[in-house]
Amino acid sequence: MKKRSESRGFAALSFDRMTRRLLSIASEGPLALIVHARPDGDCIGSGFATAKLLAEAGCRCRVVCPDPMPERLAFLDLTGQGDITPPPEGAEFGPGSRAVALDVAAPSLLGGLDKQYDILLTIDHHDSSTPVSDRYLDPGASATGEIVWRIAKNWLRTGVIRSIPHETAYAAYAAISSDTGCFRFPNVTPATHRIAAQLISELPEHADIDRRLFEIKTPARIAAEKTALELLRVSDDGRISVCAISNEMIRKCALPQSELDALTDVARSVDGVEVAVAVREEEPGRYRVSLRSNGSANVSAVCGVFGGGGHRRAAGCTLESDDMEKVLSRVLKEIRRRI
Predict the structure, then answer these.
(1) Which candidate, 25, 52, 152, 258, has a CA 20 to 30 Å from the CA of 295?
(2) What's the pTM?
(3) Binning pLDDT at 50, 70 and 90, where does residue 1 land?
(4) Is residue 97 domain-shared with residue 127, that is, in the same domain?
């Protein structure tokens, strides 16, 4: 299928133009809201916040992701949708459908869905990204959830909707809290706190959202953190930490893919570490690398060398090699150039 977006250049949209485009696209018929692979709290929260917002505007949509919903984020399914993987071809919201991408920084994060869906608009906040369609990009936003909340406020002010659904506020708050580490990360701005204040005024359950995101852990999560601690290595006088895991160990420890971000979380928590590295084997010869910076190192630039990207302090890429240690060596070489 040839996408309409391929017949023209990808345009950078202003906020007002994006809000009008989103409403126009959604008003034309059923719309898939595509979020990135290995879903996190921001993309899931933004997806369901937008779904409820569009429903309030009289539009029909469904959240779609290359990967299943992580168990720990299932509480954000505020539409009762359930499965977020693509419906079968020919089904409503299935491959061939019109779509909007949320929180998607690059085609590689779509697991091939960019070739299956007609993506007409992207809404994102990553400062290092490769467009897959016309897009609105605000790298100053701490999370895509911030942008979604601004859309909701705009539509309320302009009369598109009569009220903002409680579920939209709930999911937008979760998205922002998730991507800011409960408002601890450097991507938090004064605007983030102003938006959080608006949301908290609507959400007596905001503390419960944070507890669900950051305190409650499934047995699988605890097992993943235990494995990460066993794999942890620290080098370069304590400035770099590494957790690398093979497919064999993932199977041996029965670790679900949705919990493997524990590798990064454990690696970055070591006192004195400037850059944390997590490498996991996705399939033979293919490795996913996640980087986090606790200091001045720009890990987005590191990942950019390998065709990836993200934020200055949180980024990822995918490398191919016949050996995981070779992958790690290449990545560490680029990190050492920047610390």
Answers:
(1) 258
(2) 0.87
(3) very low
(4) yes
